[in-house]
Design the sequence.
């Protein structure tokens, strides 16, 4: 996983392409996991932030099977990402230009993606999805996360003021 492969290995239609292995499954459906330097399958004690496992209780750990990140003959699926486009178009892969379905959602990532300044409104740069309902088209967009607005600043100042008032009232009461 993570290594770059010449596309000509897959066939003549991929001549000139450079592909990166991003994952895969073996014949029984066990997925490859980055960091396990084995060609086969191993049982690993998995915890909360581990991929391939979602704990049901706090602090729960479980020993589960995962496949190593080294490719072998027992793989049935290999996920590849195109890094360098070759000479010819591959039908269904590079011949059609598809629009971006999901875009950045947090303020900092929107500013970074579109090279915005602090005073620019990031809400205008959210990727919107058109949904056709009959003859009417509506656009859906995600709510921008971590956006500092006037309301948020006002609420923060109010909370700070009330906290200070409680502190002084308690001090005077003592």
Sequence:
């Amino acid at each position: 996983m993570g290594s770059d492969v010449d596309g000509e290995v897959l066939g003549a239609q991929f001549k000139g392409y450079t592909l990166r292995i991003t994952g895969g499954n073996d014949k029984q459906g066990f997925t490859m996991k980055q960091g396990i330097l084995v060609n086969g399958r191993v049982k690993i004690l998995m915890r909360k932030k581990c991929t391939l496992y979602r704990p049901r209780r706090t602090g729960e750990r479980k020993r589960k099977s995962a496949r190593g990140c080294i490719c072998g003959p027992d793989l049935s699926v290999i996920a590849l990402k195109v890094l360098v486009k070759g000479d010819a178009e591959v039908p269904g892969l590079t011949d059609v230009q598809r629009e971006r379905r999901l875009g950045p959602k947090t303020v900092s990532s929107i500013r970074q993606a579109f090279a915005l300044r602090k005073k620019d409104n990031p809400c205008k740069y959210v990727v919107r999805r058109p949904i056709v309902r009959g003859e009417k088209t509506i656009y859906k967009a995600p709510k921008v996360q971590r956006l500092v607005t006037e309301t948020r600043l006002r609420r923060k100042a109010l909370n700070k003021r009330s906290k200070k008032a409680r502190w002084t009232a308690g001090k005077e009461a003592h």
User: Anything to note?
Assistant: The helical segments are 107-114, 150-173. The two ends are 65 Å apart (CA to CA).
